[in-house]
Amino acid sequence: MLDKRFIRENPDVVKQAVRVKGLDLDVDELLQLDQDNRKLQFEVDTAQARRKSFSKEFAKADEVRKAELRAESTTFDKQLQELREQLSATSARLNELMLATPTIPWEGAPVGADESANTVVRTWGTPPEFDFTPLDHVDLAEKRGWAEFARARRVAGERAYVLCGDAVLLERALHSYALDLLHGSGFRLMSVPSLVKEAPLVGTGMLPKGRAEIYEIPADDAFLAGTAEVSLVGLHAGEILDASRLPIRYAGISPCFRREIGSASRDVRGLLRVHQFEKVEQFVICADDQDESDRWHAELLGTAESILQALGLAYEVVECATGDMGVGKYRMNDINTWFPSLGLFRETHSCSSLKDWQARRANVRYRTAGGEVHFAYTLNNTAVATPRLLAAVLENFQTADGALRVPEVLRPYLGGRETL
RNA sequence: GGUGGAGUCGCCUAGUGGCCGAGGGCGCACGCCUCGAAAGCGUGUGAGGGGGCAACCCCUCCGUGGGUUCAAAUCCCACCUCCACCGCCA
Questions:
Q1: Of the residues A115, A347, A367, A417, which is catalytic?
Q2: Whole-angstrom Cα distance, residue A1 to residue A295?
Q3: In chain A, how many domains are there?
Q4: What is the H or E stretch that residue A384 is in?
Q5: Is A273 known to be catalytic?
């Protein structure tokens, strides 16, 4: 969500953002509604001021005047009611359009309709070379008894999986490593709800547009969140934070649920695209200062890279194109990790800066040292998301004898074992 | 699942229909006092929207949404959240 004043003063900038992000939003309609809405607001305010004066006078009036006032009020209320209805109709529509307004993307972002316009910023590491025929993670996991797919799908349908034995320990090790790392660098560890209400989903921008992607539980007016970000933003919804509390840094861990409705029958094999997964997420709320936000973006991205480097996984960092980054984002960098079975890099992390787009929706504000109330800036990035990253570890570190070489940083979490 | 209680301006609290256009205390800010501070005294102290060149002015908000009334923090209904107890339970 953008600032209305900004839209009024910079309609062309907004239109440009709508265009490069490939969105369907009529900025002129929005501007017209905004103007209509303000006019109606003024009329309603004025009418209400007058209406209030009737009641004031009533208390002091004699019986004759009271009868007059009652009659006048009734007539006046009809007009007022009509105005109110008009106002609520225009403001509802205005709000609908406001929720669809995009963050103006970073000028450095490649302009393009979709991910094919993304550019590689840098790569790290070298994809492993095998002197044997490596298995993909599905074959390897099944061979070692580390996963069940056919049976899992009997239980939970397509894209379901069961991790078994050492794969469970390895998954847990990845999350433990990420949590310890973040805890050590000042992030507050937060284990948050996945079962959430509608408001935080609207606040984070997952709704209304992303409805098809989210599991709904209508009996309880609840939803299953696709990321811990939903709860982490929601925790501070409606608050005015003291500047001294910023930046807020959270490492959120939660089960994540996604319907994957837009990618039906894609990646149906294995652990790459599943409906339920486990993610440690980095999340920051900071002041509305672009330089500071940029620094956090770099740090969140750097932390994710350091995790992959520590694991010894080759990856590339991608600058996401305007059409790929999503409505609310100012800048987005994906990190794609090498998957030997695919012979390419696949997304394992996604780092986003949203400026105050999310904070405006969720009404997360802070009071500056000077006493002014501002919307905060928010950023987020994956730290570790499994089982996708687990699959990368399985594929990259398999050995000729069908074993798995455990990355050194994970060994402390696996009783010091060097291979599984 | 059941029963009872509660949600007021950062915090505590007053407020059972018009004098609430929300009072008091704490905290905070500024000033006076002081060598300096504390104490004391005084003043100020929310958010959102709108109008005006401006000084200013108006509207909305007492958990949320409805309702009753000329008039609602106050009365009625529903919901949300919290607390206590009972039942069930990982």
A1: A347
A2: 23
A3: 2
A4: strand A377-386
A5: yes
Q: Classify residue A419: in a domain, yes or no.
A: no
Same domain, A94 and A138: no
Question: Which tokens belong to A98?
Answer: 């406001």
For the question of residue A361 being annotated catalytic, the response is: no
Six-digit token string for A271: 């652990």
Q: Residue A372 class from Cβ within 10 Å (0-12 exposed, 13-18 middle, 19+ buried)?
A: exposed
Quote the ipTM score: 0.88
Rg (CA), chain A: 26
pLDDT band with cut points at 50, 70 and 90 for residue A20: very high
Chain segment A378-411, per-residue pLDDT in tens? 999 999 999 999 999 999 999 999 999 999 999 9
Which domain does A10 fall in, by range?
Answer: 4-99
Q: How far is the CA of A335 from the C1' of B48 (A)?
A: 40
The protein residue nearest B60 (Cα–C1') is A45
Cβ–Cβ < 8 Å for A234, A362: yes
Residues A221 and A95 in one domain: no
Assess whether A93 carries a catalytic annotation.
no
Active site residue A244: no
Same domain, residue pair A311 and A246: yes
Residue-wise pLDDT tens digits, A108-167: 999 999 999 999 999 999 999 999 999 999 999 999 999 999 999 999 999 999 999 999
Q: How far, in whole angstroms, is CA A342 from its chain's centroid?
A: 27
Task: Give the domain CATH number at A313.
Answer: 3.30.930.10
**Residue lying closest to nucleotide B18, CA to C1':** A59
